[in-house]
Design a protein that fits this description.
- The chain is mainly α.
- It folds into three domains: about 40 residues, no CATH class; about 180 residues, no CATH class; about 70 residues, no CATH class.
- About 60% of the residues lie in helices and about 0% in strands.
- It is built from 13 helices and two strands, in the order H-E-E-H-H-H-H-H-H-H-H-H-H-H-H.
- A two-stranded antiparallel sheet has the order 1-2.
- The chain is globular, with a radius of gyration of 28 Å.
- It starts with a helix and ends with a helix.
- The protein binds zinc ion.
- The site of zinc ion (ZN) has 8 residues, from loops.
Length: about 325
């Protein structure tokens, strides 16, 4: 009985702590002389040149901080921001949107740093010591090979061999003469090659710039989520760029979890971590759990429907293009 009461009190204290904005340490009233420009002042930074008041002589610690700074990790906000992303992600985002910028590591900078760490971990810096995801053939790589086979070899393997079973066999005419799919179905073949080329280009871009690709995805997702979260109890007038920045932080939260899971080779959990993104959305909006989940599910359903519609339109457009321009 007593234990339960304590737990409840602790939970309540944790919740109150989570929701309160970060407190910035009070400013010291000590007078400093700037070691760079010799101005006298009170405060943490020189008002004339901006050098920090606590500029110490070089020690191993200072040297290490200097080194870390060269890689964009010098700010102490980095670890606090990671901790906050785990313990109070939505409230961190609220702090940030309401103007507490200096207390937190900037979202984009953090995004690219975490992406680099994640890459290291999936490519071998983990407890197994080798790359986690084997570089299995991608969709268009498979298609590319089929396509090349169809074009280059004039003996056995043609494009038709690799086509869906529905059209296979049709190309063998009554005399049993083996004619090529491209000759019998010039239009379908052209549409196929246009779609294949487009997919191939998209995939090459994704492989070359995975971070940019995810940012573009986040732009799309925030566009749809915006319809459902622009008026919420905590932010009645959310702007689209604000939601986009929030999603970058949410992506950072996901990357932190995935780095930890990947490091211990628990790759199954990495995809489950996607569900955790509901937590910051709930905390920052102030909607109830069920409302947040409902809104998110509807938003993602709309997105999938739009993507399918877009693909259908693209196939139709390719069809029209081939019909009227050959
Ligand atoms: Zn100064």
């Amino acid at each position: 009985m007593k234990k339960k009461f304590n737990l409840k009190a602790k939970t309540q204290r944790f919740r109150a702590w989570r929701e309160r904005p970060r407190e910035v340490a009070p400013m010291s009233q000590e007078e400093h002389e700037c070691l760079n420009c010799h101005d006298h002042y009170t405060g943490n930074y020189c008002p004339r040149c901006g050098q920090a008041a606590n500029t110490d002589r070089f020690s191993m610690k200072v040297a290490a901080e200097n080194f870390a700074e060269a890689y964009g990790m010098g700010e102490r906000g980095m670890f606090r921001t990671i901790l906050d992303l785990i313990l109070r992600p939505g409230y961190l985002i609220l702090d940030y949107l309401r103007g507490m910028r200096a207390s937190y590591f900037a979202p984009f900078k953090m995004y690219f740093l975490l992406a680099a760490v994640s890459l290291l971990v999936t490519h071998g810096l983990n407890i197994t010591g080798h790359a986690l995801h084997d570089d299995s053939k991608s969709v268009t790589e498979g298609m590319r090979q089929e396509h090349d086979n169809g074009r280059t070899s004039n003996t056995t393997s043609t494009l038709e061999d690799n086509f869906p079973t529905k059209v296979q066999g049709v190309t063998v005419d009554e005399e049993g003469v083996h004619s090529s799919f491209e000759e019998d179905y010039p239009m379908e073949s052209r549409i196929y090659s246009i779609i294949y080329n487009t997919l191939d280009k998209i995939e090459r871009f994704e492989q070359k710039y995975p971070s940019i690709n995810i940012l573009l995805m986040l732009m799309l997702i925030s566009g749809i989520l915006y319809l459902f979260f622009r008026h919420s109890p905590n932010i009645p007038d959310l702007r689209y760029p604000e939601l986009f920045i929030s999603l970058v932080y949410i992506a950072n939260m996901y990357t932190v979890y995935s780095i930890v899971f990947d490091f211990f080779s628990l790759t199954k959990f990495t995809s489950y971590a996607l569900f955790l993104t509901i937590i910051p959305l709930k905390q920052m909006s102030g909607f109830s759990w069920w409302r947040t989940i409902l809104k998110t599910v509807v938003a993602f359903t709309i997105m999938i429907v739009l993507l399918v519609a877009f693909i259908v339109l693209a196939v139709l457009a390719a069809g029209f293009f081939v019909k009227y321009h050959g």
